[in-house]
Automatic annotation (TrEMBL):
Coiled coil: none annotated. Residues 1-22 are annotated as: Disordered. This is UPF0313 domain-containing protein. InterPro entries: UPF0313_N (IPR013704). Residues 2-33 form the UPF0313 domain.
Length: 34
């Protein structure tokens, strides 16, 4: 099982190295909309 991320689910920069680039793009797009 993977460890849950800590408070970085909505960081557009993708500070967590384990996260794929696609997730950062999706989150950044959501932030840009709002």
């Amino acid at each position: 099982l993977k460890k849950r991320r800590r408070k970085d689910d909505f960081t557009p920069g993708g500070k967590n190295a384990r996260r794929p680039d696609r997730a950062t793009i999706v989150y950044s797009n959501l932030i840009r909309k709002y």
